Please model this.
Amino acid sequence: MSLLKTLEYTLGSSPTHTVICMHGLGAGADDLHPLAQTFQLPNVRFVFPQASSIPITINNGYVMPAWYDIRSMDFSSTTRSDHTGVDASCAAIKSLVANEQAQYGIKPEQIFLMGFSQGGSIALELGLHYHQSFAGIIGLSTLAAKGEKTFENLSSESQKTPVFLAHGTQDQILPFSIGSHIQQTLKDKGYLVEWLTAAMGHTIWPEEMTALKQWFQRQFS
Model:
């Protein structure tokens, strides 16, 4: 499998950790790229992969960058998303994980999986089922890619992975209840979850980035 196209940013000459950060539906690798400069985390590589453009069923087949097709707006359905597409995107991110170790000596336990919206659902899907633990999983205004199936057959190693989740209470794209359900389900299953909310919509807000930077710094300490 050829590697996804990426944008990258590194502060320092000897990176010890990597953040693989996935954009949302219809966006691109450049959408979240400014976050790397916002965080200013020394010796951390930021890798921003670009999803392929595919037809999206709920958008009348309009072609746009996406990690998988969305077939309906029924968030309770376990077949809302194209599971084959979800698995293919997880495999593509796995290849980036392997490349970090091969090229930079950065192991999975030194890699954070991060994403906004649909990108966050890939971070969760891969992070919760991978055979090794990661440095962390970050889901911003996100959902479970496969619905309740996302929480089945979880990797025992993934329980060592800390999780940061944030969701706006005024989100009109992915209702707040979705994020709340994810964080509660993971807590019930024994995961260490930091949960942040604010009266915001489907967006990234400044206080969220401040809290996330502080969370990153605690993982490094």
Summary: Strands lie at 6-11, 17-22, 44-49, 53-56, 62-65, 111-116, 136-140, 163-168, 193-198.
